[in-house]
Amino acid sequence: MKINWEKMLESLIKSAKVQTTAKLFQDHVSGALGVFSWTLLLMQVPWIFYVLESFRKPKDVFALQLLGIATPTIIFFTAVGVMIVFAYGQGMFFSILAKERGESCSWRNEIAISMPILRYWILWRLLSKNARIPVLLLIGGAMMFWVFAVFVDPLSPWVQVSLLISVSSWLVIAQRLSHGVVKRSQRIWGIALLLLFAVSAVAGYITFYWTKMEVKAEILTLQSDGIPTSREELKRYCYQGRTPSA
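The structure corresponding to this sequence follows.
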């Protein structure tokens, strides 16, 4: 069977040309729900592996622990990919919107909206009159995402929170501009994800702080028995004021 690549490419270009903002909005909603479902699934990996450790052999436990440790990094790079893809999708959305309204989108705006810093200024100029609060949340969430990801801590939970704020704000803006309709199944899916995310986050933080308190209590118990719990205490205990020889 011979594949007509020219005809296939022509059909793809034609389908891209006739795409509407309402259809693109539906794609963005489905994509966002799919990504957040995947992220929520990844968030469950560490405790699932922790439970499986008691049923596996010691050599398999080490591999599970490595995968559990690597999971937050995988989630972070997934979030970075989502931000980049949605930034590209926003440029495509405004290009199609301009064609639907019979307006001309200057090449300067098309280039600027793809630039990391200039795009926030273009988004503000385009949306501040009709959706001031959502665009503020969109820009603020995106800037907070990159600040935490690059300068603070890429594994901080605020990275995921800022991603959620930015993407949700964009979906609100896209729905207003395209007059798109969120399907009933998408609403149910979104509500279920929010509930699962809230339960997972609360359970995770309770476990984290409970474990932290238990470790602190264990350290206090060891210190009360005179057992060193840090490198400096161990040096003082071993050398008892004497300078260690080379």
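Residues 1-5, 7-16 have pLDDT under 50 and may be disordered.
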